[in-house]
Design a protein that fits this description.
Number of strands: 22
Mean pLDDT: 89
Shape: elongated
Distance between the termini: 23 Å
Largest sheet: 9 strands, mixed
Strand content: 15-25%
Strand order of the largest sheet: 9-8-5-10-11-19-16-13-12
Number of helices: 21
Low-confidence stretches: 377-381
Length: 621
């Protein structure tokens, strides 16, 4: 607001002040920002004190337009904080770091999605506002929905909605699950150019700290048996808790494409094809390369990705290969160096002196060979076959699943794997000194797998257990050290295939961000619909964050997840007597980079309320 002149018109010797009105949200107030002087004092320098005072006000207004002005403030150290009936004191700091997230949220046009799905409903609250701040909170201050609702005051806009509005918004999102995911993908193309030539897929589990799994129930209308959502299943951490499984597709740049949620007891291999079919519709039939680990590379998945112009790149367990293919792997012929494509033997890779500086490049290099591994597959239709006795029958048509194995060997990886195993063997030897038969349990990856138990006893007598180191198993495992296999139906060169496969780790990064940085669990919901909506919010947060990271990378700026989130979290401003906001954060390379992406000028020390309000309106246009 513009400044004006204020003085007591009834006083004989009035004091002239420069006064300004302030609007802070819905609250308005006026303050004397400068004292010009008393009428009698000004007579010493001018014949017309009132005109002089008005000139000073005009000068202040000119300086105000240039964002430079001197203010006088009175500080009363005896003044107490404002009393409230709240059980705990709340911070009056306001976060403005989410402005950058809001820019991306706005670019995804999520508001238009909610306007579309809520057009035929009588909704008196704004579901987009609810989803917007649930998404920001998941990135900046992850916690329960109730906790987010209680602390909405930490954001500059001071959004106002209740917990019941959060639940209703979640129900609305879940009802339009597929449309929401498709909308995010479609409009994310307006933010960055999506590279969908390669689609990486993986699954993870979220455990629930509940006493028992969800029970199956019968649908009252169809009579169909509906499987419970939170079920016991395989967990890498071996947690004895019910699980919900998430499948996630990401593009070649590490940005999420789509997700699915299934019961924790479902086989993860059954989730890939249905989600791929949805992905194909989103891509409007555009082919892509499916890339996943061995656990998500079943025969049916490879078969599906051998059609429609698609292709696959899948890691392959060498131990599970047929005897014929294993012989081809260990046959010391046709191996070449990955860097130069020059012939090399496994014997040379095993025996060279790694301490010799001349062999440093060879130590970092890999040997590879390509093996044809075509399999018969069911083409999905039948033909009539006639027999010699004149009879005929319909039989399934068999075709060939064309694929090849790219086998690599790394001396460096071999030594690393043997180093890890030798430490496990030493631990197994320590266990053998004082092993308790009652606690002996052999796991597939535990050190106890190297301990062999044999039971001996005479007929009619109780057998006694004896434990010894299983040297045969150790020798068998050592055979595979340094070897790695990838199955594919592409004709590209080995280096290209290996490079594509090497990026699978980025989907693990997505899961890490969702679980660790965004606290995807614990989930404070019990029914399937609300749990699904919770992960839709987590997915939205992950997408916005990865888009932000991608734009930073494209600008040549690289930061860790912690650097970016911590910067946004710390971007708080303090309200100074409702006159202006003062930044209580310092500058950083991350802040400079963010301001380079979106010139919101959030690297300044002081802000007028109208300036911050203007930034919000500019983003939301």
């Amino acid at each position: 607001m513009c400044m004006k002149l204020w003085y007591d018109r009834k006083a004989k010797d009035p004091a002239y002040f420069i006064q300004q009105g302030f609007r802070n949200g819905k609250k308005t107030s006026t303050r004397n920002v400068a004292r010009i002087g008393k009428h009698s004092e000004l007579l010493a320098i001018t014949d017309d004190p009132l005109a002089y005072a008005r000139e000073q006000v005009a000068k202040y207004n000119e300086e105000w337009k240039k964002s430079k002005v001197k203010m006088e403030m009175t500080i009363n150290f005896d003044e107490k904080v404002k009393a409230t009936d709240d059980p705990a004191s709340a911070s009056t700091l306001r976060n403005v770091g989410y402005f950058y997230l809001q820019q991306l949220y706005h670019d995804l046009q999520i508001r238009s999605f909610f306007q579309s799905v809520a057009a035929d409903r009588k909704i008196e609250f704004d579901p987009d506002l609810v989803n917007r701040f649930l998404t920001y909170a998941r990135i900046l201050h992850p916690g329960s929905k109730f906790d987010t609702c209680r602390h909405l005051g930490r954001y500059y806009e001071q959004p106002d909605f209740g917990y019941q509005h959060i639940l209703r918004t979640m129900d609305l999102m879940q009802e339009h699950y597929d449309e929401y995911i498709s909308h995010l993908y479609e409009h994310s193309n307006n933010v960055v150019r999506r590279n969908t030539s390669i689609c990486y897929y993986d699954c993870t589990n979220f455990y629930f700290e509940i006493e028992s799994p969800d029970e199956d129930y019968v649908d009252a209308v169809t009579g169909e048996i509906i499987k419970g959502f939170r079920k016991y299943g395989f967990s890498k951490e071996h947690r004895p808790n019910p699980l919900v499984e998430m499948g996630l597709f990401m593009d070649a740049d590490g940005i999420p494409l789509s997700m699915c949620l299934t019961s924790g007891s479902d086989n993860e291999q059954t989730t890939a094809i249905p989600l791929e079919q949805k992905l194909t519709k989103m891509f409007k039939g555009k082919p892509f390369i499916y890339c996943a680990d061995a656990g998500l590379g079943s025969y049916n998945i490879r078969k599906f990705n051998s059609m429609g112009g698609r292709a696959f790149i899948i890691t392959q367990s060498i131990r599970k290969l047929s005897v014929k293919l294993k012989q081809a792997v260990f046959n010391d012929c046709d191996y070449r160096l990955l860097s130069s494509d020059q012939p090399v033997s496994l014997e040379d890779m095993f025996s060279f002196d790694r301490e010799d500086p001349k062999n440093r490049a060879l130590y970092e290099d890999k040997a590879y060979k390509i093996i044809d591994a075509d399999n018969l597959l069911d083409l999905g239709f039948t033909e009539e076959k006639k027999y010699k006795n004149g009879k005929s029958r319909q039989v399934k048509v068999k075709g060939t699943l064309q694929q090849k194995l790219i086998i690599t060997f790394s001396r460096k990886m071999m030594e690393y794997q043997r180093f890890i195993r030798n430490r496990q063997v030493e631990r197994a030897k320590e266990l053998l000194k004082n092993i308790d038969p009652e606690t002996y349990k052999k796991g597939p990856h535990d050190v106890t797998r190297f301990i062999k138990r044999t039971s001996k006893g005479k007929s009619g007598e109780k057998a006694t257990d004896r434990y010894a180191l299983d040297k045969q198993l150790i020798a068998e495992e050592e055979k595979y050290d340094g070897f790695y296999a990838i199955a594919t139906n592409l004709d590209d060169d080995a280096q290209t295939i290996i490079d594509i496969n090497s990026m699978r780790h980025r989907i693990e990064d997505c899961f890490r961000v969702m679980k660790t940085n965004f606290s995807g669990r614990p989930v404070y919901h019990h029914n399937e619909e609300r749990i699904t909506a919770h992960f839709m919010i987590c997915y939205t947060a992950l997408l916005i964050y990865q888009l932000l990271e991608k734009k930073l990378d494209d600008a040549g700026e690289h930061f860790t997840t912690e650097n970016i989130i911590e910067t946004l979290q710390n971007m708080n401003v303090a309200n100074v007597q409702d006159m202006y906001y003062m930044a209580i954060y310092n500058g950083s390379r991350a802040l400079t980079a963010l301001n380079g992406l979106y010139p919101l000028d959030l690297d300044r020390k002081n802000y007028l309320p109208k300036e911050l309000n203007k930034k919000i309106r500019k983003i939301s246009k």
